[in-house]
Amino acid sequence: MDKALYTAMTGASALMRAQSAVAHNLANVSTNGFKAELVHTEQFQVPGRGLPTRFDVREAKVGFDASTGPLQNTGNELDVALHEGVWLAVLDDAGQEAYTRAGELRLGANGQLTTASGRPVLGPNGPVSVPPREKLLIGADGGISIVPEGQTPQTLAEVGRLKLVRPDQAQLTRGPDGLFRQPADAPAPLPAVGVSLTSGALEGSNVSAAGSLVHMIELQRQFEAQVKLMKSTEENARLSASLMRLS
């Protein structure tokens, strides 16, 4: 009885964690550049002595959905929608390079280019800063050009470049801060060359609200089945104990 109860308990626990991942996806259905977390449950054999017939359930995270989200035209000169497989390099809180697909950029008072969440945007030689300007353009290859303050459009000149890369997406992992990173021993990602982004647009979240809701309902039903099994196991144990007392 206790083995059946333990199996049902591990299944319910794994389903609760999977439900949490689905809820996290739903909470970010309108977050620009968000990639849905993929999670499922799997069986694993309980180690130890005895016959190899005992299996429990555990949550198995299988990474994230790397598919491109819907394109939203904004007309904002600082908004960029990265093409499939292209990532923008930024600095994390520890001063290390990390990657994001969120292309909603900002210019600080000192001209430093950041993401909407305040992460410094990297260029080939470090954080990107933009001088005072009349107009700013971000090219399809990541080049940043400006018309200097007080000048005419004929003086358009490139003053920087976004660091755009094409990492092996199968190796990327998402951190608690929402940024993606490669393993420490992985080689540096290849630079993205040529047309790599669309300016004046943003990539939306690739989370399907309807699909996530259906998945949440499925997980809830599976959780209820595990709870029902635990209750049945408890009732069987109670009846067995009653029969033992009668004997």
Keywords for this structure?
elongated, 2 helices, 2 domains, 19 strands, four-stranded antiparallel sheet, 247 residues
SSE blueprint:
Elements: H1 2-27, E1 37-45, E2 55-64, E3 71-73, E4 80-82, E5 87-91, E6 97-100, E7 105-107, E8 113-115, E9 122-123, E10 126-127, E11 133-138, E12 143-148, E13 157-161, E14 164-166, E15 173-174, E16 180-181, E17 190-191, E18 197-199, E19 201-203, H2 209-246
Antiparallel strand pairs: 1-2, 3-19, 4-18, 5-6, 5-14, 7-8, 9-10, 11-12, 12-13, 14-17, 15-16
Helix pairs in contact: 1-2
Q: What is the CA–CA distance across the termini?
A: 19 Å
Q: Into how many domains do the coordinates divide?
A: 2
* Order of helix and strand elements from N to C terminus: HEEEEEEEEEEEEEEEEEEEH
Quaternary structure classification = single chain
The overall strand count is 19
How are the strands of the largest sheet arranged?
6-5-14-17
Q: Helix proportion of residues, in percent?
A: 25-40%
Residue stretches low in confidence (pLDDT < 50, at least 5 long) are none
Described by strand count, sense and barrel closure, the largest sheet is:
4 strands, antiparallel
Strand content: 25-35%
The total of helices stands at 2
Helix/strand-derived category reads: alpha+beta
Cα Rg: 26 Å
In round numbers, the mean pLDDT is 87
Overall shape: it is elongated
Subcellular location: Bacterial flagellum basal body
Family: Belongs to the flagella basal body rod proteins family.
Main location: other
Pfam families: Flg_bb_rod (PF00460), Flg_bbr_C (PF06429), LlgE_F_G_D1 (PF22692)
